[in-house]
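Review box. Two proteins, two foldings.
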Amino acid sequence: LGPAGRPARFVILGMGKLGGRELNYSSDIDLILLCESEGKTDGQRPISNSEFFDQLAREIVRLITEMTELGSIYRVDLRLRPEGRRGRMVPTVQSALDYYDVRGRTWERQAYIKACPVAGDLQLGHDFLQRLSPWIYRRYLSRADISGFKTLKRRIERHAQRQGVDDRDVKTGHGGIRDIEFVIQFLQLLNGADMPALQTANTIEAIAQLEKVGCLSNLERTLLEDNYSFLRKIEHRLQIMFDLQTHLLPESHDEIRKLALRMGYGNGADEPSPNVALTIVSRPGSSAA
């Protein structure tokens, strides 16, 4: 039970690609679960709201991730919640607001650009995000905010370089999906407080709105949209080909050729050679045959 004996409310926020309605073929889903308030259940053996919603959350995750003969629905990641793995699985709305106000970091503000209520009491989710909005979209970015952005970006780049896949990773490699998303999300955080139209979770919508408000030129919008769509299409085809959550271009010429065909390049006698295939899947803007 919640305030005044009313049933306590519960909401699931979709983050990342789920929140932005941009799921990949083989995406996991990032979730944040919240309950309205502290309290107790009204059964014969009352338990605290936190214990009840913790049990509920575990059952929801089990049902979504359980492997059956047909596979599982999604992999679930709950690490974006306040305090990550160390935090409560289902914090209250107020405890989450207090955490972000005092201890919230730049990368968490960036993550909340993508937040969207997806299950449970959706109005509770919208109310929470509305209350959190002044923290997400501040009137200005401090030096610490900008440094936080740069640090996270360098960390992602170094990871790709250490793995030796910087030139093959369409997500975190140089000029990849993550680079475009960082640019767009930085502009959203920089201008979102003064321009509410930029407060959208979808990347393509954000690019369009950034042009409308004058943050991007028409040429910049076109380049970003075309390259982002191209790279996401490669990402989808890779995951369909290998039935894995992968973002790496294959190394073998035969697999590169198959990828080029799946991207719509070549047909029958016009099938691309291995060298041509590698070129066209690595260069956004190439024309399909």
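Next protein.
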Amino acid sequence: MTNLGPNARSHSGSAQSFHHRSPEYAGLLYSLEETFREKFNVRPSSSVLFLTGSGSLANEAVAASLTVPLYVSGVQYEFGSRLQRYLRAHDNLDDRVAGRHAWVGYETSASLKMSGPPSAQFTFVDMVSAFPYYLPDPSWDIWTTVSSKQLGALPVIGIVVVAERAWQHLLKESEAYSYLNLARYRAYQALGQPPHTPAIPLLYDLLTTLSEFDRDVLVAQIDRRRSLLAEVVPPEHNIGKGPVFTIADVVRAEVVQRFGLYPGKNCWQVFLWSGEDDDYDELRRELQR
């Protein structure tokens, strides 16, 4: 069975023999951070933090670490609503349209690129399904992504990028002994260590994947696959744009099962970074039948 769902890969043959308090681990962490910075032009002053867990965990860690409330845009959509619930759960939701904003960079439930107000004084953006097809704005204070979607590494490492100026609005390391406190990850990472036992094979796989990663190739691949499917899905059933192709129509059960199509609300979704080009040729033929 082909899998055109959100995770690009699910198997690895990697194995490491070192532990997380060793010099080898410190070297792995340093190389991973520097490679991520170089690939995506992250400023040297910004923190790049790696959490063993999903993009949802990364988003909740931000919500738990904030010391100022944020207003959430796009709550009429699924993932915007989730972001709102994270912030509310940690008493960091502002129901007023103030100067501090959070939003989802790409709302997969509608295949829709989102944006916040250009004049926001503080910004937190969930880029879990957007990045790196869509790139973060250098002016943002905090953004999140994940290893296992467009980057193509194994599930799952959450990634949080924090601008230096944003730390004044986050908990200090001493203020909360919690694995959701981003300041603890920052402090330990400065020592080449994690605050807890990490998933070393996943970090190693992410480093290997990033070393070979080419964003231009990814963007061209996604655009080509979208164009291919758009040839056989009528415009009225082809919802949105970007790296997730949403089909608002009935799809035969055998096609759903064969290609691992992802169920949305009254739709089926194809995550265009997953699978091989041949899979899309076959899916196009099946949708045309």
